Amino acid sequence: MVEIRGKRYSMKKNQELKLTGDIFQNLSDFFKVMGDFTRLRIIHFLSDREMNVNEIAAELGMEQSAISHQLRILKQSRLVKYRREGKQVFYSLDDQHVRQVFIQGLEHVME
């Protein structure tokens, strides 16, 4: 059983949930974005708290421009959101699903 947007579907032989090519393409794109080393590290830091680009760059030991590029990809993929506070922009995970996927992947590789 899988729940998508509040509705439950059976995964038995794909009877109820019809997965189209577009859905598989979107899922593939999601895993491509999640499959980048730097983006995973950003997701890791944002899973605990919101941060600005300079804080993330300092944690990762990378240039601010490189982090901004990765954050742009994460925003376009709806994995990260942002809010403005004066001149500062703070980033956080878009929703709990992103954190859950990250944690489940982490648990899987650490078994």
Walkthrough of the structure:
By secondary structure, this protein is α+β, with helices and mostly antiparallel strands. It has a domain at 37-111: Arc Repressor Mutant, subunit A (Orthogonal Bundle). It is 54% helix and 18% strand. The chain has five helices and five strands; from the N terminus they run ββααβααββα. The strands form two sheets. It has a three-stranded antiparallel sheet. Strands 1-2 form a two-stranded antiparallel ribbon. Helix 3 packs across helix 4. The longest helix is centred in the C-terminal third of the chain and has 15 residues, at 96-110. The protein starts with a strand and ends with a helix. The model has no long low-confidence stretch (mean pLDDT 90).
Q: What is the count of β-strands? A: 5
Q: What is the SS-derived class?
A: alpha+beta
Q: What is the 3D form?
A: globular
Question: What would you call the quaternary organization?
Answer: single chain
The main β sheet shows up as: 3 strands, antiparallel
Key features of this structure:
alpha+beta, Arc Repressor Mutant, subunit A, 5 helices, 54% helix
Write the layout of secondary structure elements.
Elements (H helix, E strand, L loop, with lengths): L1 E3 L2 E3 L11 H14 L2 H10 L4 E2 H8 L3 H13 L3 E6 L2 E6 L2 H15 L1
Antiparallel strand pairs: 1-2, 3-5, 4-5
Helix pairs in contact: 3-4
